[in-house]
Amino acid sequence: MAGVPAVVHEKSALPPTVLRYTVSSLSQRRTDRTQTNLIEVISGDLRLITLAFEPPPGATLKATTVTAGPQQLTATATQTGLRVELTLAKEVTLTSRGLITSIHEFA
């Protein structure tokens, strides 16, 4: 999987004019019927409650599994056209070297 560096600007408990920077990497791998998305935090903290990804054209979501490290997370998946949105049952905070993985199966 090839990584795409990303900088996430996150509001924090700091004064309103101060942003905390998180550096992360997003990787994606597709086969005919699956798509795996991996977000790795390189430095900083990343709070997540919703994730969104683009499925392959013409694909219909069948099942999704989401994990943070070794822990499986409860999430609701919704597909609208070329957008799959995952809403986690509760917020997850990833710290440096933290990983969140979503595996999607398509019909």
How would you describe what is shown here?
The chain is mainly β and 107 residues long. The protein is globular. The chain has a single domain (3-106), classed as Sandwich (Immunoglobulin-like), CATH 2.60.40. The strands form two sheets. Strands 1-2-3-9-5-6 form a six-stranded antiparallel sheet, with no helix packed on it. Strands 4-8-7 form a three-stranded antiparallel sheet, with no helix packed on it. It has strands at 3-11, 19-30, 34-43, 46-53, 61-68, 71-73, 75-80, 83-94, 99-106.
What's the quick description here?
By secondary structure, the chain is mainly β. It is about 0% helix and about 70% strand. It has one domain (about 5-105): Sandwich (Immunoglobulin-like), CATH 2.60.40.
Tags for this model:
six-stranded antiparallel sheet, Immunoglobulin-like, 107 residues, single chain, disordered N terminus, mainly beta, three-stranded antiparallel sheet, globular, 71% strand
Q: What is the β-strand count?
A: 9
Biggest beta-sheet profile = 6 strands, antiparallel
Quote the distance from N terminus to C terminus: 23 Å
Q: Uncertain runs with pLDDT below 50, 5 residues or more?
A: 1-12, 14-18
SSE class: mainly beta
Using the CA coordinates, give the radius of gyration. 14 Å
Please write the string of helix (H) and strand (E) elements.
Answer: EEEEEEEEE
CATH architecture grouping: Sandwich
Give the strand line-up of the largest sheet. Answer: 1-2-3-9-5-6
Mean pLDDT: 84
Number of domains: 1
Indicate the multimeric state.
Answer: single chain
In CATH, the topology is named: Immunoglobulin-like
Which CATH first-tier class would you pick?
Mainly Beta
